[in-house]
Model the fold of this input.
Amino acid sequence: MSTGFGFAIAIGTGWIVTIVLLVVLIAAVVALYFQGKRMQKKQEEADAQADAMKQWVTMLVIDKKKMRLTDANLPQIVVDQTPRLMRWSKVPILKVKAGPQITNLICDNRIFDMVPVKQEVKAAVAGIYVTEVKSLRGGKLAEPVKKGFFARTMDKARAAAGAGPKK
Done:
């Protein structure tokens, strides 16, 4: 009789562990859902504020890169106001000539691939943040081409080997 009792405890313990893991996973999914909703609301408020402040500027795009905020030659107050973890993440930076002045601007991730290099464009700028880009001469901007899984993997392998991505 004692062997049957021990076997029943082993099955019961397995089920208890499974139920606890399911409860923890469900709690994590619910927490991520509500945090995502909150972050989406913050993003919408920031976009609305940027749309209210935007001005259309004609500029020549000299270069575009993804680089760290600390390496991008942005004003020191911008670097100080960003959270510490964001300072080391790479952000899309445009080096532009607007009028007689050459400056570095932060670009929106959604339009970074569409920005042409060494061409004049008309851009919506809110402070140092570029939110929209239109062609100055009325031409179409290149739509970003989505790469498949295999192409992305090959580009990463080429970059790791020291060669650039295939064009």
